[in-house]
């Protein structure tokens, strides 16, 4: 039998089009040794694995640097429109392998490290994930980080903007501590600081020469020469999150203005004297409301520094800025108390008041006497404590507002932003999210990428719509066999990983049923949990039946201050403890809580999954991107008609997903008629049994009332109507189990899903942002590689 290919060998057969570099192993070795010697100042007697990782990272980085400088020169010469993507979160994951894959260097590096007696995969494992999200602020506001997506999305978008030749810049915060590391201790989540910079970061370059001041506090002076914000202090104190938001905005806008003013104009190098043409040259995309202060900050610059009239300044701001909404959950919508603003950013508050005055004047003219409408649409919310509604600020200050999946964009027009849609319907758009096929297929699942390329060629990686060509082969036994084989290999690999790192043994022939995402009530890990308990009770009752074996894996972080989410984790681990140690059950059902879910773990588990759980209450998940990653990697989806699941069903055919439960209309109707959890509890015996077990301490023998808060919530104040979808979910899971017994039919369905993935490339998403919001034209043309022997 031929020796199976390694992951690197599989990737070797695929090169991302147009990026195939010269694979010069001997050059790589020379440069590796040069970095070990001159950059790390070590020789091979004293070098550690980490030194080798850094030497390799620096070697690969050199290849990026040449291209990066060439790209900047190209932009400087051509002066294209720039897009600035502002986000408080960038979940970048690791960079080394991604860079090697994108520059088609991986195979050469693998060979070079092999010749040096090193194992490249082992070196790659030393890299820390860059999890630049807000791990800490959940302490103050438990809902702040949780419902807004951990924006792996932003990282996908950067990849696509680069692939599509857009002059794009991501601006965010380089947090010293990323999103916390999750440890599971006695079944509970414990947060640990993510000291990701401890050993340094080879993927960054500090630019202290571009340092700019950022002002806070102080007071506003209206002088004959204009308005001045004076006596500002440097920050310290409590309002950390608002400071972070202003910090990123203030620094970014200074950089945008600097670049705008110093770039060429046509063929002549001129210093632009004013910002009147800013919207022709600059697009600013606000990723959620977190960078909303860009709107008053740009107004402040235009008014106080550039001395523009209000009308002119407002025209520039609104033509430059655009806003993406990511959630409809009310607790996730940012509202900042005016007192805090007044103290920290007094000039911005003044500007916001004036924006609001003019905005309300316009509304009052359109709807004379409609005072309730004015109240609803105001940027200032009245109440015990007056607050600024940041979403309203974003809508008023932008020329485009978009949701992130069709159903979500429709919902915001019909509910959350209805009043705004009525007055400015032209502003509202949809941009269905996507994922980068480079990271989420070629890099993480080279075996599958190769099987696809063998059938339809490799151009699909940059033009994911071509995946539909796979449909020609849907009845082809060899494709069915190859797809099933890759999945089985990925499952074996992940099983080995779990055994090595977590000391758990799982049955690689069982169905891998996976729900990985933030832990949140709306995502309904509890519904999954009730299914687990139901399966368990059924197996116990009829142990000799031909059950479809399942390994159910759940992973995700809970916001540190979100009590219910943390208790949900405890329930999952408790159920696992009972189920996994029950000898009657054996390996027909196993429940694993995957500790510390992050990008690197996603890259491992998703290619190994059979079933993807996307079971949020209809109308609550704006889009989801995890759903797309699973679909592209050959898992079938069990899900509600929510977020992007709706479009996934449309693309793959609804018969190729396991769709169940209430639709948005049903949920709305139930909100009107009233949701009565007790009715379901009393009527459905298996549900009652599961709930009685949780409530009675079956899963927590040492502390019977451990889960009382969850039980009480589910029975009496469940905003997400878990019980209303229980029966449909269980029935649908029965269908899943039945189909899994027929591997050929299962795999055919998988092929329909992969073939339907074309829409969910972030290349498509970004092309639409470029054309329909930013006024830019994407292109696959490459900037010529620099005159560097290494390229
Ligand atoms: C993709 C991804 C998410 C988003 O998952 P959803 O299911 O869309 O909520 C969250 N965390 C990580 C690490 C991811 O890779």
From TrEMBL:
<comment type="subunit">
    <text>Homodimer. Homotetramer; to form the enzymatically active phosphorylase A.</text>
</comment>
<dbReference type="InterPro" id="IPR011833">
    <property type="entry name" value="Glycg_phsphrylas"/>
</dbReference>
<dbReference type="GO" id="GO:0005737">
    <property type="term" value="C:cytoplasm"/>
</dbReference>
<keyword id="KW-0597">Phosphoprotein</keyword>
<comment type="function">
    <text>Allosteric enzyme that catalyzes the rate-limiting step in glycogen catabolism, the phosphorolytic cleavage of glycogen to produce glucose-1-phosphate, and plays a central role in maintaining cellular and organismal glucose homeostasis.</text>
</comment>
<keyword id="KW-0321">Glycogen metabolism</keyword>
<keyword id="KW-0007">Acetylation</keyword>
<keyword id="KW-0808">Transferase</keyword>
<keyword id="KW-0021">Allosteric enzyme</keyword>
<dbReference type="InterPro" id="IPR000811">
    <property type="entry name" value="Glyco_trans_35"/>
</dbReference>
<keyword id="KW-0663">Pyridoxal phosphate</keyword>
<keyword id="KW-0328">Glycosyltransferase</keyword>
<dbReference type="GO" id="GO:0030170">
    <property type="term" value="F:pyridoxal phosphate binding"/>
</dbReference>
<dbReference type="InterPro" id="IPR035090">
    <property type="entry name" value="Pyridoxal_P_attach_site"/>
</dbReference>
<keyword id="KW-0119">Carbohydrate metabolism</keyword>
<dbReference type="GO" id="GO:0008184">
    <property type="term" value="F:glycogen phosphorylase activity"/>
</dbReference>
<comment type="similarity">
    <text>Belongs to the glycogen phosphorylase family.</text>
</comment>
<feature type="modified residue" description="N6-(pyridoxal phosphate)lysine">
    <location>
        <position position="629"/>
    </location>
</feature>
<dbReference type="Pfam" id="PF00343">
    <property type="entry name" value="Phosphorylase"/>
</dbReference>
<dbReference type="GO" id="GO:0005980">
    <property type="term" value="P:glycogen catabolic process"/>
</dbReference>
<protein>
    <recommendedName>
        <fullName>Alpha-1,4 glucan phosphorylase</fullName>
        <ecNumber>2.4.1.1</ecNumber>
    </recommendedName>
</protein>
């Amino acid at each position: 039998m031929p020796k199976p290919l390694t992951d690197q060998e599989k990737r070797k057969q695929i090169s991302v089009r147009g990026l195939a570099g010269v694979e010069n192993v001997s050059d790589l070795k020379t440069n590796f040794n040069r970095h070990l010697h001159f950059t790390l100042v070590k020789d091979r007697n004293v070098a550690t694995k980490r030194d080798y990782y850094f030497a390799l990272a620096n070697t690969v980085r050199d290849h990026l640097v040449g291209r990066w400088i060439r790209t900047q020169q190209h932009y400087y010469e051509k002066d294209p429109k720039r897009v600035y993507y502002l986000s408080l979160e960038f979940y970048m994951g690791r960079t080394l392998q991604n860079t090697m894959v994108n520059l088609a260097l991986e195979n050469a590096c693998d060979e070079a490290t092999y010749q040096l007696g090193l194992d490249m995969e082992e070196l790659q494992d030393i890299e820390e994930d860059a999890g630049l999200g807000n791990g800490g602020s959940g302490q103050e506001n438990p809902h702040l980080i949780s419902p807004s997506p951990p924006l792996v999305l932003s990282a996908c978008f950067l990849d696509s903007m680069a692939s599509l030749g857009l002059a794009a810049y991501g601006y965010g915060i380089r947090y010293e501590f990323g999103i916390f590391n999750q440890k599971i201790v006695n079944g509970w989540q414990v947060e640990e600081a993510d000291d990701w910079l401890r050993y340094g970061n080879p993927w960054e370059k500090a630019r202290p020469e571009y340092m700019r001041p950022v002002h806070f506090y102080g007071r506003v002076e209206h002088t004959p020469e204009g308005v001045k914000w004076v006596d500002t202090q440097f920050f310290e104190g409590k309002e950390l999150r608002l400071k972070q938001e202003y910090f990123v905005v203030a620094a970014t806008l200074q950089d945008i203005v600097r670049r705008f003013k110093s770039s060429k104009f046509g063929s002549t190098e001129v210093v632009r004297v004013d910002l009147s043409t800013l919207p022709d040259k600059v697009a600013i995309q606000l990723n959620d409301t977190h960078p909303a202060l860009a709107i008053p900050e740009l107004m402040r610059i235009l008014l106080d520094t550039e001395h523009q009239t209000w009308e002119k300044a407002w025209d520039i701001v609104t033509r430059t800025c655009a806003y993406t909404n990511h959630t409809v959950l009310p607790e996730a919508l940012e509202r900042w108390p005016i007192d805090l603003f007044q103290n920290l950013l007094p000039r911005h508050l003044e500007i916001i008041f004036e924006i609001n005055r003019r905005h309300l004047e316009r509304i009052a003219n359109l709807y004379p006497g409609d005072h309730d409408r004015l109240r609803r649409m105001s940027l200032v919310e009245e109440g015990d404590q007056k607050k600024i509604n940041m979403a309203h600020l974003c809508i008023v200050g932008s020329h485009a507002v978009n949701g992130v999946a069709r159903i979500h964009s429709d919902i915001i027009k019909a509910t959350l932003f209805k009043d705004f849609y009525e007055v400015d319907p032209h502003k509202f758009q949809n941009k269905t999210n996507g994922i980068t096929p480079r990271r989420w297929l070629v890099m993480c699942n080279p075996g599958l990428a190769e099987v696809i390329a063998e059938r339809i060629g490799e151009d699909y990686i940059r033009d994911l719509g071509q995946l539909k060509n796979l449909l020609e082969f849907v009845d082809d036994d060899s494709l069915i066999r190859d797809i099933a084989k890759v999945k089985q290999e990925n499952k074996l690999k992940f099983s080995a990983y779990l055994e090595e790192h977590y000391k758990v043994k799982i049955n690689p022939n069982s169905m891998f049923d996976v729900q990985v995402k933030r832990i949140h009530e709306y995502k309904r890990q509890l519904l999954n949990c009730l299914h687990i308990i139901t399966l368990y009770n059924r197996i116990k009752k009829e142990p000799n039946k031909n059950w479809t074996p399942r390994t159910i894996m759940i992973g995700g972080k809970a916001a540190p201050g979100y009590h219910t989410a943390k208790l949900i984790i405890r329930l999952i681990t408790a159920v696992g403890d009972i189920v996994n140690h029950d000898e009657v059950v054996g390996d027909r059902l196993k429940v694993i809580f995957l500790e510390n879910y992050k990008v690197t773990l996603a890259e491992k588990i998703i290619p190994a999954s059979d079933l993807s759980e996307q079971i949020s209450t209809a109308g609550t998940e704006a889009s989801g991107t995890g759903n797309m990653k699973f679909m592209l990697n050959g898992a079938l989806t069990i899900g509600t008609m929510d977020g992007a699941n709706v479009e996934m069903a449309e693309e793959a055919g609804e018969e190729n997903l396991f769709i169940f439960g209430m639709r948005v209309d049903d949920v709305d109707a139930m909100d009107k008629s009233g949701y009565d959890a007790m009715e379901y509890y009393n009527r459905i015996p298996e549900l009652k049994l599961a709930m009685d077990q949780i409530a009675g301490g079956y899963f927590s023998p040492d502390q019977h009332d451990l889960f009382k808060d969850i039980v009480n919530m589910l029975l009496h104040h469940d905003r997400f109507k878990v019980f209303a979808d229980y029966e449909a979910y269980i029935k649908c899971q029965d269908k899943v189990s039945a189909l899994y017994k027929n591997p050929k039919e299962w795999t055919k369905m998988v092929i329909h899903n992969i073939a339907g993935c074309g829409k969910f490339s972030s290349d498509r998403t970004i092309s639409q942002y470029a054309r329909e919001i930013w006024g830019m034209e994407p292109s696959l043309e490459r900037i010529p590689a620099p005159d560097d022997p290494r390229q």
